[in-house]
Amino acid sequence: MKTFTSLFLLALLATACGEQKKEGPKPETLVKQKVLIIDGQNNHYIWPKTTRMMQDYLEETELFEVDIHRMDSVWLGIKYNENRPEPYTSFIEKYPLGNAVYAISHDPIKTSDFSMDFDKYDLVVTNLGLDAASWPKATRTAFEDYMKNGGGLMVVHAANNSFGDWDEYNNMIGLGAWGGRDASSGPYFYYNEAGKVVRDSTDGVCGSHGMEYEFELTTRASEHPIMKGLPIKWMHTQDELYERMRGPFKNATILATAYADVEKNAPPWNESVKGLGQHVPMLMTINYGKGRVFHTTLGHFDYSMECVGFITTLQRGAEWAATGKVTQEVPSDFPTSEKTAFRKWSE
Length: 347
Prior knowledge:
This protein is α/β, with parallel strands linked by helices. It is built from seven helices and twelve strands. The strands form two sheets. It has a ten-stranded mixed β-sheet with strand order 3-2-1-4-5-12-11-10-8-9, sandwiched between helices. A two-stranded antiparallel ribbon has the order 6-7. The N and C termini lie far apart (about 70 Å).
């Protein structure tokens, strides 16, 4: 009996030891996508803050590791709304980039020596704007090669105003506005009331918007990874509604549109222009070589970027542009067709 008991205990001990040595599958180590935000020259003087906001939005997903790089010189932009209480220089003072020292201009800068090793990054986000100085030819060529070889690009709001004379950039962003663009830059694209995409080669301005207001977005590509699970209709908070953009729009998909009302989206500073009266692109994707581009026209000011719709599509668009897929769920506080939703950003 003692022998049997001893053997049983030894067998039990051996089994226990074996179970201790047996290891379950190790959790996969999440490799974060490396992101570069480029800023430094934007007609919207709030850009130092919006860069920091986008860095936070991307990093909070725990999918991205974000660097910020300013161009070789800095233009503060324009304070369009004089009713804003903060001083013109407040954002560049409050949101410096480390200990870096830049020559700061109150006027657009015509030339640039900007260079960058883009190949270190899975995604480049441009927070540049109208009248950003042209990159040197070698830098433009390096960026074109980066994109053709599978890089990712995210174009935010006024970044589609930049580099109007750079043909390959226009191919990357699909549609652009202002920046020297005109009817020769390409047609207008929009959805008509019948739900058909119209290619409109009518002469006219390139780029327009009215005063800021809340407007409704309509999802047009509900099965695209960026838009999957989002409502067909959803409200966006106070923002500029870009319209009359022009460009080649090759290998492109319109993800969402907004209606540019004839009166509501008419610019009061230009009585000769009315709203287009069509459903114009707000979110879109473009394939450029092996590269992927997510283009959002949303995000004029800090409160515009606090919209949950902006945050969600920025995060999901960034993941798609960097990897070709989207793993993020749609948040429970996403706006509805009746109501906007926003999250107050804090540092």
